[in-house]
Design goal:
heterodimer; A: mainly alpha; B: about 300 residues; alpha/beta; Rossmann fold; Alpha-Beta Plaits; 6-stranded mixed β-sheet; about 30% helix
Chain lengths: ~250, ~300
């Protein structure tokens, strides 16, 4: 978490060291104007969450499993429902904290913009803050589910990173495109829907779709990403509840 | 009528094709000390795991305290199942505080508990620095938080050296003296015989016998027979041919046998002599729990 707190403003600050960016990207300073700063900082936060929050979700549960302290807590008197509530509440709190910090960074970094507080709306467009919260929560919960399924910290961490870096990419761009060419369903994979919650704030999505010679938009719009993430969250949480309630500890 | 602190009804549990528990039914009454006996793989730990809700039974059910403390009966139970599990990076006191928080028992004097198990001097040491004996003692201290009505110990002296075993035995005896209901799974049968008022004997997931120790122990006495090495096979064959004598085990060159209570030592001596077997050792005595256990589980 310390890495997230340090890197979120730092990475944004690094951008300021560039005078210009390659077209069609606008000047770096304009990223710090409202409302675009919400999307820009959200994109940086998404990358950080991609690496850090999923791992943290894995760690939260698998360290308990490997020390058998989760099992011991049930022996000591916690019910399995209480265990589920405690873990999910903790993850929810972390997601709220990371979202609150995101909001703080936005208002601080906005001071570096060209005309920061003249843009509107001041709180961003299309529920960006709520999308960031869902994005954080999704990475945490996905990691948590993997940690619960694979009780070893090392193996679970490896599986998480294998999936997000390689397995889903291969499934989407190799397997899915071969069997279902030109089908927008390839955008609805678990990690992709979360990434599209806070995408890069420019026309780069169209460039990417065009470069792959696809006649559809590869990226989900905010509403699509929000609904899809919600569905996946529900599935993850259902899986977590089922595993903790029904499985031997 | 004493309260039923635990009622187990037709509990069954399988791990794949292996049936770890097979239709087990058992009742524990308040104030008694129960020994759960059985060879490795008999289902003792599985039974304790199910009643503490860390394992899920395939069939059957159980009820704690006649449902009086539902839905959180384990707040009134202190248990050590298999190895003691605590947070390795926290010290003894902090680990006990976590248990205290779960048990909702803030009034417990943790320092007194630590002194009681001889860990007070190491209360600020991290759990990962503890020896196995110290871990067991901390687990016992944790099990006493909240003044539970029932205590469950699963092989509490496993892996300990003789001094560790003696320390744990002393602590359990102190707890037993306070009148708590205890359920103890153990291999050390003479300890169970000394401490427990009731026993339940499991084998291959099935309950073979249960009840007060006095009624479990067969009235049939134990006969010790010893002969010279060249006559051992003859004696063994003679024993096997008798319906009123059952072989239990061989202890060195002495055969331990269960005999019908009508048989007298002189009858045995006479019968073996007629077969050309001269006895060098002949002793009749009462059964121990270990011998009864071996007799039942063979």
């Amino acid at each position: 978490m310390i890495l997230y707190f340090a890197l979120l403003p730092s990475i944004a600050g690094v951008l300021l060291s560039f005078e210009t960016l390659p077209p069609p990207l606008p000047s770096p300073q304009s990223f710090f104007d409202f409302p675009i700063i919400w999307d820009f900082m959200g994109y940086i936060g998404n990358w950080l969450a991609y690496f850090l929050f999923g791992f943290l979700g894995v760690y939260i549960v698998s360290v308990d499993s490997s020390n058998k302290t989760l099992r011991q807590s049930v022996i000591n008197g916690l019910s399995r429902k209480q265990v589920i509530s405690a873990k999910l509440l903790f993850i929810l709190t972390l997601s709220l904290i990371t979202t609150a910090y995101y909001m703080l960074c936005v208002f601080v970094m906005a001071n570096f913009g060209t005309n920061p507080f003249e843009g509107s709306p001041l709180l961003g467009q299309e529920l960006i803050i709520f999308r960031f919260f869902i994005m954080s929560l999704s990475y945490f919960v996905f990691g948590f589910l993997i940690g619960l399924l694979i009780r070893s910290i090392g193996v679970a961490t490896m599986l998480y990173f294998l999936y997000v870096f390689f397995i889903e990419v291969i499934l989407r761009y190799v397997v899915h495109l071969n069997f279902f060419p030109k089908s927008r369903s390839m955008a609805y994979y678990p990690m992709n829907v979360v990434e599209d919650l806070t995408p890069f704030p420019s026309g780069s999505q169209e460039v990417a779709s065009n470069s792959m010679q696809l006649d559809f938009n590869l990226f989900l719009n905010p509403t699509e990403a929000l609904i899809s993430s919600g569905v996946y969250l529900l599935l993850y949480i259902t899986g977590i509840v089922f595993i903790i309630l029904k499985r031997d500890l | 009528m004493p309260m039923k602190v635990l009622e187990i009804n037709n509990l069954s549990k399988s791990y794949g094709k292996t049936k770890a528990l097979n239709d087990l039914s058992l009742t524990l009454e308040k104030g008694n000390i129960y020994g759960l006996l059985g060879p490795n793989g008999s289902g003792k730990t599985t039974t304790l795991g199910i009643i503490m809700d860390v394992l899920k039974a395939n069939e059957g059910n159980y009820t704690w305290f006649e449902g009086q403390f539902d839905p959180h009966p384990r707040l009134n139970i202190g248990a050590i199942l298999e190895t003691p599990n605590f947070y390795p990076y926290l010290n003894a006191t902090d680990n006990l505080k976590i248990v205290q928080h779960i048990k909702k028992s803030p009034e417990d004097d943790l320092d007194s508990l630590l002194k009681w198990v001889n860990l007070y001097d190491r209360r600020k040491s991290n759990f990962k620095s503890f020896s196995l004996g110290m871990k067991q003692r901390l687990a016992i201290a944790a099990s006493l938080i909240g003044e539970p009505e029932v205590l469950i110990f699963d092989e509490p002296t496993n892996g300990l050296d003789p001094q560790g075993i003696a320390e744990i035995r002393e602590i359990i005896l102190k707890i037993a003296d306070e009148g708590k209901t205890i359920l103890m799974a153990s291999h050390i049968l003479d300890e169970v015989e000394k401490i427990c008022s009731h026993v339940a004997i499991l084998k291959s997931g099935k309950l073979l016998a249960s009840g007060p120790v006095g009624t479990i122990l067969d009235d049939n006495p134990i006969l010790e027979l010893g002969v010279s090495a060249d006559k051992e096979i003859d004696l063994f064959n003679w024993v096997n041919a008798r319906d009123d004598i059952q072989f239990i085990q061989k202890d060195g060159n002495i055969l331990l046998l269960s005999i019908s209570s009508e048989l007298q030592p002189e009858d045995i001596n006479s019968a073996t002599f007629q077969q050309g077997i001269v006895l060098q050792h002949l002793k009749m005595r009462k059964r121990t729990l270990e011998e009864e256990f071996l007799s039942i589980t063979q």
